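Key idea: predict the complex, not the pieces.
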Amino acid sequence: MPDTTAPIREVKKTTCYMCACRCGIRVHLEDGRVRYIDGNPEHPLNQGVICAKGSSGIMKQYSPARLTKPLLRKPGAERGAGAFEPISWEQAFSILSERLAKIRASDPKKFALFTGRDQMQALTGLFARQFGTPNYAAHGGFCSVNMAAGMIYTIGGSFWEFGGPDLDRAKLFVMIGTAEDHHSNPMKIALSKFKRNGGRFVSINPVRTGYSAIADEWVPIRPGTDGALLLAIIHEIIAQGLYDRDFLVRYTNAGQLVNLDEKSDEFGMFLRTEVPEEEGCFDPQNKLWWDRAANKPVVTHTEGCDPYLLGEFKLSDGTPVKPSFQLLQERVKDYTPEWAEGLTGIPAATIRRLAQEMGVTARDQKIELPIAWTDSWGKDHDTVTGNPVAFHAMRGLAAHSNGFHTIRALAILMSLLGTIDRPGGFRHKAPFPRPIPPCAKTPNTPLAVKPNSPLDGMALGWPAEPDDLFVDEAGKPVRIDKAFSWEYPLSVHGLMHNVITNAWRGDPYHIDTLLIFMANMAWNSTMNTAEVRKMLNDKDEQGEYRIPFIAVCDAFQSEMTAFADLVLPDTTYLERHDVMSMLDRPISEFDGPVDSVRIPVLPPTGECKPFQEVLIELGTRLKLPAFTTKEGVRKYRDYPDFIVNYETEPGSGIGFLAGWRGRGGEKFMRGEPNPRQWEMYSQNDCVYHHELPKSYQYMRNWNQGYLDWSQRSRITRYAEPILIHLYSEVLQKFRLAAQGKGITRKPPEHLKRRIETYFDPLPFYFDPLEVQATDTRQYPLAAVTQRPMAMYHSWDSQNAWLRQIHAHNYLFVNARTARLAGIDDGDWIRVESQWGKVRCMARHSEAVEPGTVWTWNAIGKAAGAWNLTPDANESRLGFLLNHVISEELPEGGRRISNSDPITGQAAWYDVRVRISKVSPGETAETSPQFAPLKPYPGQEERKSLWSFVAGRRP
Amino acid sequence: MTQLALVIDLNVCVGCHACVTSCKEWNTSGQAGPLTDFNPYGADPTGTFFNRVQTFEVGEFPNTETVHFPKSCLHCEEPPCVPVCPTGASYKRKEDGIVLVDYDKCIGCKYCSWACPYGAREIDEQQKVMKKCTLCVDRIYDQSLPEIDRKPACVKACPTSARLFGDVHDPDSEVSKAIRESGGYQLMPEWGTQPANHYLPRRKTQLRIFDDELVRADNPLKIEGRLPKPAKSEPSLDDVTSW
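Result:
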């Protein structure tokens, strides 16, 4: 007789989603319960390792914070109180689809869809576009859009999913403004190998934690001054002649001649040999160099010619011109290390030394790989050269209102050192590099929003000039978040952080329904948390909610769910199909495109339904053309069916997944739908990895073989070279418009000066906007946050194990700064900005520069949320810094987003505060506090003691 | 005689806690489990962990080191926890040197945790027995696992491969080499416990730039004709000397 008591053991492979990293995992099940999750050794991303979050996925799966039923706010209950009654999915769908159908038939922009996660935009974006609303974005605008925009507008690629440091071959690695863990396991794997190979690791950061802890040198810097440091390093690199001249000449616009005739409409633009209609979104090769030998202008890349990079010249018609590199040199002339010392707090000698380390390492430790390739101008190269200096940067640079220019400066520095898509430097990941800027555009008129029609264009895009802005004839924004308007022209990820405020105020207009997926906009993902919570619950004079209907889809009882009228219970990542699509942000490696999938290892809990299924069902009920036939009949049974059969256009052969396409799975990138595609992913570790030939793996901006391959594979429309924009014509076009030049649209009067100031074609340093608007004698300290590694990019305060690592947070204060303020280690203190205040505990630290205070973000929770007990440490002792950060700044009698004036990037890290000890009688509890939430119907009771053993119910 | 142990490389440990939760996850459902949690969703949550990472600062700003220090049972060669155990529950295995607790014999008297100078043992308040790292003894010999997986969960998980596992008595093992070549050390050797686990210290890579590296013949400024040169009209010796 078989042993019926023996446990049933299974191992299933899927993709992790405890953070945004997307490692391959093996889930070991015992009697249908998760017993152990480990890294999949066959997966290219994590190569078998797993992080603290990944191993704790088990506690996410079985968390009592999980929502299990669709919920409707009880009649009469206030938003925020979390009083719900369970309803069926059929009811939920009919409520939503009736409401949305009405909106779509009248004014589709009254529906807004904003999502916390930005890695399923292929589907969420498709849904929004099909619906016809322009009001769609993911969280990039309040996360790190400056990093994406600043680099993509300069080198055609960026960090993380789009590219990264090649630490296998780098000799010097400079990490600047990177928090604990962005991204996670791949960075840790690479960093450890790099250190063991004897590489030198320099970390520039106000705080020394996480990765910085193992740096060979920690360079503390004042927040928001990274731009000053980078510009001073550029100054030094140019002054010493440590730039890679050959690289600059051939692969950047350094030698291109700029028109300096101030009277011309073309002032500040590159000279062109002819002015054809410049179709498409690539740089035509029609610019000029000043040839050194012939001493006259020639078309760039003319065989045998070599341009001056420095100097000033006059064309035969008298037009004064300079190479853009000359303008860069002039720009950084006064940005000396001594100047930067005063801003950054870094000694000038250190800045000079850092510049020299970078320059000398790049120049003298060159790598030559015996890889033949052909460049875009037909020149054959026998080798690929590498200058082994690598950088990594993220939100520390990005989340400032001067972040775009800071990041442009970084990308320019990386280019001066000749490190772009080269061994040991920065390397792209498919589908990058892309043209500068990429081709996708939003519509440029409100006429694109029409009843019962898909949006005529993308909701998010990459403006190349003022005429690409999504504004009406008066120059007013079309989008609720004012993205792609004159206020934030290059807001390529939208401004999710202003959606609620704008919708509440009705500026630019009121909306009807706000659908939020997986974003905690009533807590840690919003600035000005307490006020935003009031806005969510605010009613007009007629007693109607100012935001009439709010639906939230989440797997957990977040603070935001409490403000919903309708709550849709999402599954966990272990219960769903999912794709990391090439149409989105895939998990590509340096050596070629990689995409991957999730395949459910467990059935959904309760009545949970994956958000993907919700969208497909809604899209079908609303008869959106992508989801139904002309006759209005359902096209896709469910999400897996959609993934297999959806094509971007009928017969395009391009779908969400790039692997195993074609009827028998014999094609990749392009091919007919393959009915067995899921099965093939399942048999191949849930991952498709196409390794490019070595000759296509480097210099991809200008690698003809790669560009042709990319074009044939329909990754790009054009196979034109992507020259690095040291000097940005895109920015200059906006500046010219602000100066009233040219035939493009012009900004409204009140924004002219702003555009003219900030749309500088070369990077410059300015104090962050909030600092300019702050009396820094009153509020002298910069206050910043980071997420701890064990919770990076995760929602895991509900997680029984992870919350034991971080149950509450402190404000870390340099010990000397604290003592001067009379604050002892562990004291209760008040942190005040000009916008708000919090009470919290202080912790002395020697690992933070004296002008900065910081804390772990999103550890503090509202009482009772996430199904923690109301007296849990998270709410009693934990706190959010968000309460002292404003989502808006006053500007000339108006209010404007507290964001980068170019990209709309939320300027989280610009806030200035003061700290003081609280009076002796004050409560030993953080403030502000909010009325405790109660568990919702369908939530599992929380255990007070748990001896978790898989395989049997404890 | 074999002595299995962990060698932890502080030079690359970034304090991510992967070892902490992978250990908890494997072991709570393993032979040494469960690893009970008290108040997992309430105030002051606390539970049994076999491995924890402590983070502390050394030095004064700006000369500060932030140290991430993972710590678990060190599997001492002279374990003070063994002789103090009144029931023989705490024992050291001859075959591989792993120090274990036999829960059937343990009476939860805590003598062993008092004797341990490293604070590596944790009483399970639920089961009233002493618990600690077993080096995943229920993994490392499990023939049903592929060989690559026959390692402690923390070693498999560690993203920076800061945790090496092997026989510190075998001079050719990876761990012995690491101890020898990278300055591996024991914690508090003055206690005479001879911990089997070792730590590898931080190492710093410096770069020295020589002045003459900044003035090179191939300096690109020369191509632009921009290397600094004095003007011809400036005074020179030619103006004032005669021979």
